[in-house]
Amino acid sequence: MEAQQGDGERWEDEKGPAPEKAAVDDSVAEKISWKMVVFDDLFPRLSANGGKLRCTRSRSVAVLSALYCSHVFSAWGDRMWQFLVALLLALLYPGSLLLPAVFGLVFAMLPALLGTVLGDFVDQNHRMRVVWISLLVQNTLVCACSVALAVLFGLNLDLCSDVPLYLFGILTAIVIVLGASANLATVVNTIAVEKDWVVVIADKNKDILASLNANMRRIDLICKLLAPAAAGAILQFTGPLTTTIVVASWNVVSFSAELGLIWLVYRWVPALAVKKLRKSAATETADEPLIEDAEEGEAEEGALGEGEEMKIFDEEKEKDKNTQVKIVKSQAGSATSHPTWCSRLLAPMLSLRYGWSTYWRQEIALAGVSMAVIYLTVLGFSGVTAGYFLTQGLPNSAIGAGQGVGAILGVAGTIAYPSIRRRIGTVRTGMFGISCQLGMLSLCLVAAVIPGERVENMAEGYFSAHCPADDVCDGLLPSPPPYLPSSLPSP
Predict the structure, then answer these.
(1) Suppose 153 and one of 215, 241, 348, 449 were both cysteines; which one would form an S-S bond, judging by CB atoms 3.0 to 4.6 Å apart?
(2) What is the distance between the alpha carbons of residues 356 and 361, in angstroms, rounded to a whole number?
(3) Which of these, 311, 266, 312, 265, lies nearest to 63 by C-alpha position?
(4) What is the pLDDT of residues 140-160, one digit of tens each?
(5) pLDDT by residue (tens digit) across 217-231?
């Protein structure tokens, strides 16, 4: 009995602590595993040459950190500007939604009409050239638009002041055109980085591509959450003139930061220097092959070192290879390397024609149109919606915070997307997301059957300025709405 008791005690002493230690080790391992999963999702280990060779962990973190930081600067500036410009235009035209509505129309119409031209510019130029030109144009136009707004607010040139109507119209037209044109450069930069650079960096790995797309989208939504709230607070507590100065200063600083960070990504990923350039629609023929930026085999040979570790080009060797351009002439020999001025003028028109005809031949053409029709509503925080809230007396900070609530849900979607895609696939994930979106939007139909009171006088309402006599000397504060909230029609 004593021996058995002694054996039992020995088993408890020797064997007993073992399961407890194993449990501790398992919990620590689970924590470490969870942290590694999150880290791998944010900074997946990159590869090259179709996944045959892998990049070092430190180099992957450096490349993706530079990419993410560059996107933060870009997304923050875009979200802040898109939120502020509608509110500033509403302040220039008190009590009306006319200017925000016109700006929203031009803002969305230009990319729709010139989308194929923008795509051709991306396809026909080197990656780094596309990015730096788009960044330069975008930030320059936003700064110019901010200066025009600063002039309007600094001189109190709103519609209710004594300024000549033609001068007010010219300045507001300049603001709208510059702001909408800056959006074209934003579209070019978005196409280049999110649709081209990210694909090359992922190196045809679907899991890495899904993670990078989710992370880029997550950054955009976080900026959508924070930037409008910060911009609304600045506008609320400092006034429109100071806000325009802050926006202009931000674009000057962010341009240098964005360009420097994206240049580091370009230097650290040699595959980005390899691109097949497509000729314009005016000079392209069926017999002409594509123009190649550098020989792929030669670039890959210099991009990869011994074993499975990626090495960076020697500076002189990389410079030589990046400057090589291989132009394969047509066998027919009828094409010229320098198109005439007439063909250059016709190129955008031909691109529009070919682009739309190509789009309508796709199987997803009607599906794309149906998705676009959803955004014809005012259910999102667009410029018109923000301007309407402003006419109803909501503070700017509250409007920005409301937009941030929607961004929080969007961030949650980007977190859930990679795991859902791995479980049910990309197609089912897309169908699930679209179904949830339509389900949420269908709840808004309830507002259509809720009884509301009719507005008798619509001539002085949504699109007519409200200029009481006491507002003329009160600056550019939002004028009270010319109608009571209780008299608004149901949506």
Answers:
(1) 241
(2) 9
(3) 265
(4) 999 999 999 988 888 877 666
(5) 889 888 887 888 888
List pLDDT tens digits, range 39-88: 777 888 888 777 677 888 888 899 999 999 999 999 998 888 888 888 88
The dihedral region occupied by 198, where left means phi > 0, alpha psi between -120 and 50, and beta the remainder, is alpha
Which phi and psi (to 5°) does residue 404 adopt? -70, -30
Q: Which residues contact 369 (CB under 8 A, 6 or more apart)?
A: none
Measured torsion, CA atoms of residues 31, 32, 33, 37, in degrees rounded to the nearest 10: 100
Q: What is the residue-wise DSSP string for 80-142?
A: HHHHHHHHHHHHHSTT--HHHHHHHHHHHHHHHHHHHHHHHHHHTS-HHHHHHHHHHHHHHHH
* Ramachandran angles phi, psi of 182, nearest 5°: -60, -35
What lies within 8 Å, CB to CB, of 376 at 6+ separation is: none
Distance CA 212, CA 196 (A): 12
438-487: pLDDT as tens digits: 887 777 777 667 776 544 444 445 555 556 554 433 434 444 443 333 33
| pTM of the predicted structure, to 2 decimals | 0.66
The domain 47-280+348-364+373-487 is classified under which CATH number: 1.20.1250, 2.40.10, 1.25.40, 2.60.40? 1.20.1250
Tokens at residue 461, please? Answer: 């309402």
CA nearest to 78, candidates 122, 123, 29, 141: 141
Going from N- to C-terminal start, the domains of the chain cover 47-280+348-364+373-487
The C-alpha atoms of residue 432 and residue 416 are separated, in whole angstroms, by 12
CA pair distance 133, 308, nearest whole angstrom: 35
* Higher pLDDT, residue 234 or 166: 234
DSSP 8-class letter at 171: H
Cα–Cα separations (whole angstroms), residue 456 to 120, 398, 428 = 50, 29, 49
* Location of structure tokens 């849900």: 409
